[in-house]
Design brief:
Blueprint (H helix, E strand, L loop, with lengths): L2 H30 L8 E2 L3 E4 L2 H10 L4 E12 L4 E10 L7 E9 L3 H18 L3 E4 L1 H16 L1
Parallel strand pairs: 2-5, 3-6
Antiparallel strand pairs: 1-2, 3-4, 4-5
């Protein structure tokens, strides 16, 4: 196989991967189209959603232009399985501050929760192409506590 044939093969593979990504993005948009994002908590630098579907819907509806690597997944171990929180940091403009988008409601032990976990992890991995880093939930609790204390002052 000469170099030219190898380059064509890589282009075809890249093209196929991009087509799959576009179809996946379209499918995810269809899934969350009817979902209106309703934040549980909102501050200048954090928006907290009840479900990952609401977070994804918010991303599609808002003017997010930059995603900050990596995505954090906070794992809470429970009796029947794990409960997950996801934090995606975004920027609306290059000069603006980061906003943390946080979603809860993903599990690996219930029907809807498992679906939410699959949806957001597919979105992160295959659409955003971002790594997911697991962190302790105490870090998330500390972040929330600091924000609430600042808000009180």
């Amino acid at each position: 196989m000469d170099k030219e044939e190898g380059d064509k093969g890589e282009d075809i593979m890249r093209s196929d991967a991009e087509q799959i990504r576009v179809r996946l993005l379209k499918r995810i948009k269809e899934e969350v189209r009817g979902i209106k994002p309703r934040p549980l908590y909102r501050s200048r630098d954090m928006i907290w959603f009840l479900t990952p579907s609401e977070l994804i819907s918010y991303i599609f509806r808002s003017k997010v232009s930059w995603f900050v690597h990596p995505v954090y997944r906070y794992v809470v171990k429970e009796k029947y399985g794990n409960y997950y929180y996801y934090e995606i940091k975004v920027k609306r403009d290059m000069d603006k501050n980061e906003i943390s988008l946080i979603a809860e409601g993903a599990t690996d032990f219930s029907g809807r929760g498992s679906y939410e976990k699959m949806l957001i992890e597919t979105f992160i991995r295959d659409v955003l192409h971002m790594p997911i880093e697991d962190l302790s939930p105490t870090i998330l609790i500390g972040k929330l506590r600091r924000r609430l204390e600042r808000k009180r002052k």
